Automatic annotation (TrEMBL):
Domain called Integrase catalytic: residue spans: 15-160
A GO BP annotation: DNA integration
PROSITE patterns: INTEGRASE (PS50994)
Database matches in Pfam families: rve
Organism per entry: Trichinella patagoniensis
PANTHER family linked: INTEGRASE CATALYTIC DOMAIN-CONTAINING PROTEIN, PROTEIN CBG26694
GO MF term list: nucleic acid binding
InterPro entries: Integrase_cat-core (IPR001584), Retrovirus_Pol_polyprotein (IPR050951), RNaseH-like_sf (IPR012337), RNaseH_sf (IPR036397)
Protein name: Pol polyprotein
Gene3D superfamilies reported for this sequence: Ribonuclease H-like superfamily/Ribonuclease H (3.30.420.10)
Gene name in the database record: pol
Amino acid sequence: CDKCQQSKPPAPTPAPLQPFPIGRPWERVSIDILEIPMSRHGNKYLLVLQDSFTKWLEALPMKDQTATTVARKLTAVFFRFGIPETLHSDQGATFESETLRLLLNNLGIKKTRTTPYHPQSDGLVERANRTLLQLFRTYMVKDADWEDHLPLMLYVYRTA
């Protein structure tokens, strides 16, 4: 009724989106772990990294998602492309581990994180994950072959 509508408190206004000004490649890199069916090579996770400036995507197969494995993979990427200023992730246990904290401190990388249970605040890499999964569904014959097709999937993503 009209009376009820008028007496209800106003709905809270959502906070405005906060821009993240990025001025150069590899200034801010977002990361996530994507779980997929086990490959013939025994890998069942992808460490997905995306540069916020260029949108360049890297995806690295992993057998497990331990902090040590992730730190090793990140080190390989950083030594290949350069050390980012900021690394952004969700609040998964792997990304909040002491091992990763020490690595990032030693390399001088600032760590930022998403709001808990709100993956939209890391939309760039979350969208990349969805696109990668769609590419796998489109181009693969068998689930176990995904690792063999990963270079093609990354090429398609990067050139589309």
